[in-house]
Amino acid sequence: MKGKAQDTTATLAMLFGMSLLAADAKAEATGQMDVKTARELAVIARVLENRLGEARKSFVAARTPEPAPTCPAA
Q1: Which of 69, 45, 47, 49 is CA-nearest to residue 57?
Q2: Residue 20: how many CA atoms within 13 Å on its side-chain side?
Q3: What is the pTM of this model?
């Protein structure tokens, strides 16, 4: 994950955090959470989960050494 993908993932994570805080404050004040807000948070969470999964895979791939070449049997 490089460049623009990192920036958009970081922005999405920030948006998720801010939305979660706002939804929590609103739910605490009214005693219930808005269905639309809950759906939006679920969608953002799912996208973040996928993005972070991709980032993890790329980190693992970067740290996994290439297998040593094998010598053909003589």
Answers
A1: 49
A2: 11
A3: 0.66
